[in-house]
């Protein structure tokens, strides 16, 4: 892999840590700013919504700019937003900084994925995407707990400053490693061509797979902590270790799938998504037993992230010569799942169905994702025949 691909993965790690870090910082923010817990929770929702709408808008807005210029602009704005957040005197300023950070993070994701696949041969796309997406996985495994630790020692504002510094360092590394002409083409990118590529129904099947997979994961992942304490009977202090095991499983899933997704993309998706559905059902059965439940959660993390390299590479294959908007919309599909999954889980719990019902919802979403992969395969074969 070119060093630039690794640098893009590091940039996603820095920004992904910011996406995840509020989960461990909310109590500190509540106390410092004198706000309620629901208000603080909206900081997380605001970030997700900002990513949902920001990716396609900024992808089109920067379409004709050199990729390296866009990446530097996005990561610079991200660092600045965190400096503002660290200095925020009130809730309104902090919320505004989070929305701006989410918008430019979404734009960075879209351009970074296009840049990464442009730096490698076609048969190495999935591996390159595995490294870029792996930045977010490392953020979940290491960035989130380290951010919480920094917050506990020096306050939540210190975490924002840390993210600002890491993002600035990523910008310097991008300037030094990403070639200025990585996106050179015979013709300048066209908004019309990008929009025409979006008419491909197979592309929307790929998006549906992404959204359904993410929903399947988040409907359970969002409630792992109370589930493990109230149903499995683990002490609250053991939950971070279980989440760490989930994160290690995620790293292993990406590492494994990155080596199979280029050669066997459909098989990789069917195996990983099928395993996700099966493991959701297994979790329902073993949830009351600590050791089997913990092992299943680790395997669940592996299955969920094993689909990512193939999912992302497939979008680029289907987008053809107009990848930027297609990649940005894929980010929106991912964040749609992030938004819908916890909401579905909340509705299930609010209806009094219990935490066990979350696993059934997860299994259903995973089975629907398998169906979308099969439908995409059928449409692809038909298109080749035509």
Topology:
Elements: H1 3-33, H2 37-61, H3 67-86, H4 91-118, H5 125-154, H6 156-177, H7 191-197, H8 201-221, H9 224-232, H10 239-257, H11 265-286, H12 290-306, H13 308-319, H14 323-350, H15 356-385
Sequence stretches where pLDDT stays below 50 over 5 or more residues: 382-386
Distance between the termini: 36 Å
Structural classification: mainly alpha
The main pleated sheet reads as: none
Q: Residue share in helices?
A: over 70%
Mean pLDDT: 83
Task: Provide the succession of SSEs.
Answer: HHHHHHHHHHHHHHH
SS field, number of helical segments:
15
**What is the β-strand count?**
0
Provide the β-strand percentage band: under 5%
Shape from CA axes?
globular
Q: Please compute the radius of gyration using only Cα atoms.
A: 20 Å
Characterise this structure.
With 386 residues, the chain is mostly helical. The chain has helices spanning 3-33, 37-61, 67-86, 91-118, 125-154, 156-177, 191-197, 201-221, 224-232, 239-257, 265-286, 290-306, 308-319, 323-350, 356-385. Helix 2 packs parallel to helix 4 and helix 5 (125-154) packs across helix 13 (308-319). It is globular and about 55 Å long.
Summarize the structure.
With 386 residues, the protein is mainly alpha-helical.
Descriptive labels:
386 residues, mainly alpha, disordered C terminus
């Amino acid at each position: 892999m070119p060093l630039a691909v690794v640098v893009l993965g590091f940039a996603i790690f820095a920004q992904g840590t910011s996406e995840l870090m509020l989960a461990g910082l909310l109590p500190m923010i509540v106390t410092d700013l004198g706000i309620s817990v629901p208000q603080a929770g909206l900081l997380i929702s605001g970030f997700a919504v900002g990513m949902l709408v920001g990716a396609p808008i900024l992808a089109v807005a920067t379409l004709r700019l050199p990729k390296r210029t866009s990446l530097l602009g996005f990561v610079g704005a991200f660092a600045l937003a965190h400096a503002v957040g660290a200095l925020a005197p009130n809730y309104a300023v902090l919320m505004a900084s989070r929305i701006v950070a989410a918008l430019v993070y979404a734009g960075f994701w879209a351009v970074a994925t296009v840049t990464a696949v442009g730096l490698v041969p076609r048969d190495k796309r999935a591996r390159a995407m595995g490294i870029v997406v792996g930045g977010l996985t490392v953020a979940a495994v290491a960035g989130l707990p380290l951010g919480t630790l920094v917050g506990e020692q020096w306050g939540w504002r210190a975490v924002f400053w840390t993210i600002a510094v890491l993002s600035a360092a990523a910008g310097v590394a991008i300037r030094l490693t990403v070639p200025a002409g990585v996106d050179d083409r015979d013709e300048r990118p066209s908004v019309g061509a990008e929009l025409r590529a979006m008419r491909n129904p197979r592309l929307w099947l790929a998006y549906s797979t992404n959204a359904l997979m993410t929903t399947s994961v988040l409907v359970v992942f969002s409630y792992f902590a109370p589930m493990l304490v109230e149903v499995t009977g683990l002490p609250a202090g053991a939950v971070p270790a279980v989440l760490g095991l989930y994160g290690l499983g995620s790293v292993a899933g990406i590492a494994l799938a990155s080596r199979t997704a280029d050669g066997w993309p459909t098989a990789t998706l069917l195996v990983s998504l099928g395993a996700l559905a099966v493991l959701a059902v297994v979790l329902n059965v073993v949830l009351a037993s600590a050791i089997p439940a913990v092992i299943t959660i680790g395997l669940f993390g592996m299955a969920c992230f094993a689909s990512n390299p193939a999912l992302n590479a497939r979008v680029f294959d289907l987008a053809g010569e107009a990848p930027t908007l297609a990649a940005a919309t894929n980010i929106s599909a991912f964040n749609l799942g992030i938004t819908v999954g916890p909401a579905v889980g909340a509705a299930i719990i609010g209806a009094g169905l219990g935490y066990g019902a979350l696993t059934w919802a997860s299994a259903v979403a995973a089975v629907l994702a398998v169906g979308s992969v099969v439908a995409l395969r059928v449409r692809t074969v038909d298109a080749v025949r035509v």
